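Contributing new records

If you add data, match the layout below exactly. Sequence lines come first and carry their own label; structure lines follow with theirs. Keep one chain per record. Anything else will be rejected by the validation script.
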Amino acid sequence: MKPVMTQAQQRLNSRAAVLKALAHPTRLWLVEQLEQQERCVCELTDGVDADISTVSKHLSLLRQAGIVASRREGKQIYYRLETPCLLSMLTCIETALEAQTPGSCCGR
């Protein structure tokens, strides 16, 4: 019999799923590109060294994690950032990396 997952375990699993979805340089780049405006897959493919199929797979993972949303307009699919708060987390990571001191982000 499989043990029932607690709310805390479910929350941690959900958080891990979001972090896993972000854990690729191309997906991080896609999130940054969607910061200002929605874009179609073709526009995003132009900025990455990958074909449309690969970029679409990356976007699909981000969509499944709830990070981006999509809409169809004719044959084009447009993506937009649904969780802009994640950009603050990425900025915090950048600050810590630049300082090269553990725990040095966010003015500590």
